[in-house]
Amino acid sequence: MVQRLLQPGEIEALDHNAIPRLHLPRPASLFEARARRLRQLAAGEVPGIPVEEALRGYLGLMAVVADAQHALVARLGPTGVVLPDQAALRAAHDHNMPPLPVSGARPANWQAVFGALLDVLAEAENAPPQLAPALAALRATPSAELEGIADAVLGSYPDGADPLRAPFVAAALQVAWSMMAAQLDEAWAQPLMTGTLCPVCGSHPVASVVRIGGQSQGYRYLHCSVCESEWHMVRVKCSCCEANGKVSYQGLVAHDADPIAENKQAAKAGKPLDKANDPTKVARAETCDDCWTYRKIFNQEHDFHVEPLADDLASMLLDVLVTEAGYSRASGNPLLWLRENQ
């Protein structure tokens, strides 16, 4: 394919201020980066996200799962999960609906993807000891029961999902949907009537992230929990009810952190103030006093390696504190399932 070079005058005519509305996933690198971030978090190497000791083992297990997702994507190839037929895609586009709806028919081979994921996990090196019995239980799950767990995962029904099996089913569904989403055209996909749901699959976002680089510099994107797409939503707007009058941000500040004192010391030493890489601004909860919900927001301006799903999973301390303040979480993390009554 030959790329046409832009001529003088055409470059100036480009809208360099246009905001990219949608970023489709890149499965070939996405899960590898997630595994790396999960291990970094588990090791306590992210100053802005303190991780309790009890959670570190689970983050390590999910890193093994992300590694398996990465290996499975490579085995399946770019078109290993087939898109719906063109008529269905066209109908969704014409009616301003998600082209890959999680509420519709699942890919015919999704259970094969699930089985392949278990095979890759069985080959994992340095896997935690609890993985082997978990894989045995997962392999023994009847097909109909797997479909029920998938219904709960895709419909975000905590009470319908077995906390032990749902993360593995969710991981397989992420592989399937992200591989389908990657085959779409970003310019073709349309925003939905509501900005709170993924325009590609209709799922809830797991968190939001402020991106850096290119035309996305400084803009906030919501990250889909299933297909891994990201779509733009303006800041200081609730990602649950879309109100903007009573939004605020709650963060974690380490006991030994004193940014004001640090800046004073820098000023005395004649050093420039470092407005970037502020650990207190890496992970925050965006709370809304209109709907009394919250969703976390991660800032790549203060940590280049933020990964919304991994960082959300690791920052449970923030969940505890914000929940104690009276806010309800807007949507869950597909790799962690807790029953409502627990």
From TrEMBL:
Keyword annotations from UniProtKB, A to Z: Cytoplasm
Domain FdhE N-terminal: 19-192
Pfam families with a match to the protein in the record: FdhE_C, FdhE_central, FdhE_N
Residue ranges of domain FdhE C-terminal in the record: 236-336
Domain FdhE central as annotated: residue spans: 197-235
PANTHER family: PROTEIN FDHE (PTHR37689)
Annotated NCBIfam families: FdhE
Descriptive protein name: Formate dehydrogenase accessory protein FdhE
Provenance organism: Massilia norwichensis
